[in-house]
Design goal:
Helix content: 25-40%
Oligomer: single chain
Strand content: 25-35%
Structural class: alpha+beta
Largest sheet: 8 strands, antiparallel
Bound molecules: nickel (II) ion
Number of domains: 2
CATH architecture of the largest domain: Sandwich
CATH class of the largest domain: Mainly Beta
Radius of gyration: 18 Å
CATH superfamily of the largest domain: q2cbj1_9rhob like domain
Length: 227
Amino acid sequence: MLIQIPALLSPADVARARDVLAAASWTDGRVTAGPQAAAVKRNQQLPVGSDEARALQRMILAAVERHALFFSAALPKRVLPPMFNRYGGELNTYGAHVDQAIRYHPDTGQAIRTDLSCTVFLADPTDYDGGELVIDDTFGERRVKLAAGDAVLYPGTSVHRVEPVTRGVRYASFFWIESLVRSDEQRRLLFEMDLALTRLRTRDGESAEAVALVGTYHNLLRLWAQT
Ligand code: NI
């Protein structure tokens, strides 16, 4: 399931990220790709341990922690440090690939399963042509190009690509999440139940039925979560 997270970053955060990224020095994106992905990857990335990357990682992780919709959709257990990419000029596309199932935390070496991928759009869509994130979904291809500060969550199992950027520069952040609930199907049921419960409680207050259903939500989470 694809889930759009509107305004994951505030306009002030986006402006700060844009300033940092415009002044940063970039390296070839193939350094962090596996062999199959490297063959189709033509973009640039911020060096993972650079001061610029670290500052922006903190900003994005703080935004993720305070965003209720992100939490409900991802049920994060571990989040890898966000990375940053740039598509433009000759290095402007990333062909169809699947992300590696396991990645290692750059600081701790801990193995993290990539249940979910997240892309945070950092450039205004009017600043570049092309650059759609195209994700193979059960409903077919989904083309995603969002406002600066918006994010998309999609299953780590999906084949995806980034279309060539033919004008301007596309900046984005991307990172992976190991979820408390490994199954995309179970996570989706919990997300839909949480959304419906939020609407129900907003409309009717804390009715006995709402209390019972919140209990059911937590009992399902207890059943399915791996901590
Ligand atoms: Ni990818």
